Amino acid sequence: METLLATQKIDQDPGTPREIESPAPTAWPLILAFGFTLLFSGLVTSMSVTALGAALAVAGCIGWFGELFPREHEVAVPVLPDDFRASTERRVVDRLPVAAEQVRAWLPVHTYPVSAGVKGGLAGSVAMAVLACAYGVLKVGSIWYPINLLAATAYAQSLRMGPAQLNSFHADSFVLALGLHAFVSTLVGLLYGVMLPMFVRRPIVLGGLIAPVLWSGLIYTMLGLLNPLLASHIDWYWFVASQVAFGLVAGLVVVRQSRMLTRENLPFAMRAGVEAPGIISPHGEERP
Fold first, then answer.
1. Cβ–Cβ under 8 Å, residues 179 and 165
2. Cα–Cα distance between 107 and 109 in angstroms, integer?
3. Phi/psi zone of residue 117: left (φ > 0), alpha (ψ -120 to 50 degrees), beta?
């Protein structure tokens, strides 16, 4: 009741602002994002797309900075009174049960560290590479075919090779494919590690089923639009199988790692990085 009365007094106060300054709507961030999309899409399409993307990205940067400097572009937005009145039929407020010996409510959640996801991503990259090379040997008769296809995602000239050239070794394509595979696998492993707190009890389900299906569907859709020629060279059944193998191996590596307390369970001093001998044991052991 006191809060309701205070709210009514604020609404009736003549000194209450009737409008506030808000950032003005602008389309420059959208232009900048679209420019970067075309900029990287041109790596697998043509240089004209890259040039157009670079021009839009530069224009988006200039336009967006013009909205902020030397003075932010703002508009006045009227403040509308809120007539909402909270009501409930409950007579008792529900509270989170807390043990008698605890001063505050903790979330006793243990999760895997982010480093576990990175380790899983690197291990999964090996399994994925083995399965992809096996596809090349069994289906095409050359271990270099999937490697040259992977290099074609960033080097469009690889797709202009004939069947004999796609099945032969090329040092530049091998180095590019190796670096690209290691880089993407590390990023996917890092993303996997960040998502682990949401699937603490089922990391293998996340890595071996959910993520491969979503990732394969996204690549199938985007590659069909950006580079249909490359998409036509990919056996999508083997592609999904390699993604599942990546996720399963990554999940198995993760479950072998030791769990750790989430940061919600750590004292504030430890979260802030403060040297607190009364909280942290000098030998690095947890205090009872």
1. no
2. 6
3. alpha
Q: What tens-digit pLDDT sequence spans the chain (288 residues)?
A: 444 444 454 455 556 667 888 888 899 999 999 999 998 888 777 888 889 999 999 999 999 998 888 888 888 888 877 777 778 787 777 776 655 655 555 554 677 888 888 898 899 899 989 988 888 888 888 888 888 888 877 766 655 666 777 788 888 888 888 988 899 889 888 888 887 777 656 777 766 677 777 878 888 887 777 667 667 778 888 888 888 888 888 888 888 888 876 666 566 666 566 665 555 554 444 444
* Domain spans of the chain, in order of start: 19-78, 110-261
CATH of domain 19-78: 1.10.287
Instruction: Name which of 169, 226, 167 is nearest 49 in CA terms.
Output: 226
* H/E stretch holding 40: helix 28-41
Answer yes or no: are the C-beta atoms of 287 and 279 closer than 8 Å.
yes
